[in-house]
Fold this protein.
Amino acid sequence: MDFQTEIAKRRTFGIISHPDAGKTTLTEKLLLFGGAIQEAGAVKNNKIKKTATSDFMEIERQRGISVATSVLAFIYKEKKINILDTPGHKDFAEDTFRTLTAVDSVIVVIDVAKGVETQTEKLVEVCRMRNIPIIVFINKLDREGKDAFDLLDDLEQKLGLSVTPLSFPIGMGYDFKGIYNIYEKNINLFSGDSKKNIEETIAFDNIENSDLEDIIGSSAAETLRDDLELVNGVYPQFDKNAYLEGEQHPVFFGSALNNFGVRELLDCFVEIAPAPRPKMAEERLVEANEKELTGFVFKIHANMDPKHRDRLAFVKIVSGTFERNKPYLHVRQAKKLKFSSPNAFFAEKKEIVDISYPGDIVGLHDTGNFKIGDTLTEGEQLHYKGIPSFSPEHFRYINNADPMKSKQLYKGIDQLMDEGVAQLFTLELNGRKVVGTVGALQFEVIQYRLEHEYGAKCSYENFPVYKACWVDPDDPKNDEFKEFQRVKSKFLAKDKRGQLVFLADSQFSLQMTQSKYPSVKLHFVSEFE
Ligand code: G4P
């Protein structure tokens, strides 16, 4: 098969949802359709369960599973589908943000009873900022939930989406009769049988046809006709280009657990979802069909086996082909590297592959060469943008609790930061180290992993900081910036890349600082124009 056809075949996407909305269940049903797994229950849920086990044991369990579910690939209707895993737990939101830099589209899962939840709001905002095409799947229609129109309003108001339903529910919960598929113009009756692989559908071009009464009963028929009239009147016709531009967002309804509405979603997805999209590097826009390899690391998994210090760097291929044993330029380190056993992912297995194409993810065994955001090329000086660090929300001093093990401690901290578990800041004034995290859970993760993987012990001390902001002076030589540095010296630190960071101790002090030094811009994200 030629290079162009291979690219056109690929669909690389992420499923995002608030925990419990049904992401794992939907993923599993998609894999079943692809024939990649044979039975339900094969895909493990990597969410943090609220059980009696302590949080960090739970995190270890989750980490074990998430290697297996990082990339799940399968073939459906001759398309190679790569699903990238996105943790739903808010403390791992940064992981999800980074994964979103490697997807070409997303499916958002919403629980019909809960509607739009906070975690979804933040993730969808990131997708909208990047114009990532979004399809919405409203799940759990077998349960009582919110009215379909209220949900569509919710999607517009809370998520800022421009929705257009491509299917519409007939009843809900106890009265759930099925779904009218607006995209395919047919009716799918709900049987509540999750084992069914292909649901029976009844073609229904004209909704006015009196057969509708025989199929779903007269009152449901009347409601459906009214609903569809309203849909027609209120929502725009589906426009594939608008969807691809991230300006229109198709919505499907179903029940993942009952395998209902999932085939419709998948069939539409393979038809409309984008093949690998071009990606902006600092230097230029890179098209997928360029012959030379370019790719970037968006995730690192380390030390699954502490005896071997193994790390797996996940590289998204943006252009060209990635070939086994061919030397590639590691741009940041300015050195050529060869990989004798690059991994590709299929369902829950990984195996060594000779060649991978744009849209694919390869897992590279690494002994400490890679950091998140690193770029690989065939020689070009190229730096992919868009793997920013976000301002952490929790800060603590990190101290060495075992002076005999300081080497291990610093190595451990270094590697965990490369993996993106947290961010390290070094205070300008006294060189003390401060760890900043998105969620409080990460402090436990770091302590636990330092001890179990590096044999080092750390302790924490409170450090009352409200937010870390990256400092961006209009003119580093002007007096205003010099005064800012002098007055705020107690609150200045360097991040791992040596960028200057202001640690504001309250929202008030942040506002005051901004108004007092207007030529010193403060950013909540580490990448800015
Ligand atoms: P997540 O990955 O988004 O966190 O959600 P997950 O798929 O684990 O689903 C969360 C819960 O919702 C699970 O129940 C799952 O069985 C249920 N669920 C998913 N889809 C549907 C649906 O269409 N209808 C109904 N009624 N339930 C659905 P659980 O009891 O929390 O977990 P489990 O013990 O069944 O695994």
User: Anything to note?
Assistant: The radius of gyration is 25 Å. DSSP finds 14 helices and 31 strands in the chain. Residues 398 and 460 are 5 Å apart (CA to CA).
